[in-house]
Amino acid sequence: MQFEHLGARPRIHPDAVVAPTAVISGDVVIGADCQILHGAVITAEGGAITFGENVIVMENALIRATSTNPVHIGDHVLVGPMASVSGASVGDEVFLATGTRIFNGARIGERSEVRINAVVHLRTTLPVDTVVPIGWVAIGDPVQILPPDRHDEIWAAQRELDFPGYVFGLDRETPDLMVQLTERYGRGLARHADDRRVD
């Protein structure tokens, strides 16, 4: 299913294959020989999404751009089932395994591997040929790659990256943070009310 969102509609190369249950919304460009499988959601929420050639997006993966963080995915990239890429840049020949999470402002260097259920956090840069092990967390620039049991170190780095401030423009110390966050974010998402199916 393809949708026009905020006046932009997907542009899909004629050699790409998109499953009928995939959703592609807004300012999305999909290159030659890409494969978008069932249940994948590719949504340009005010920022553009561009795919190179031979990108595979597997079942139930989510790729989301924001007005401040577009998404670019290079050539010969595999985005695994249930993976999530939000507002990030992914170099050529990258493997994002099942369940990986790539956050806003992240940059994934060429030929890197982010293995099953691993996380590349907000504004993190993975150099070329980096491997993030199964379930581990990559955070910062320069990057630290930490096992999940080192929560205190992960939190110390994550706190400095200021997720609510960077993504939602809100101070973490706001007493009603979730009230403001959901109301503000909800208003932005409500723009989908005017979407129009174009396929």
TrEMBL record:
Pfam families registered for this protein in UniProt: Hexapep
Lineage: superkingdom: Bacteria
InterPro entries: Hexapep, Transf_Hexapept/Carb_Anhydrase, Trimer_LpxA-like_sf
Coiled-coil region list: none
Protein name as it appears in the record: Transferase
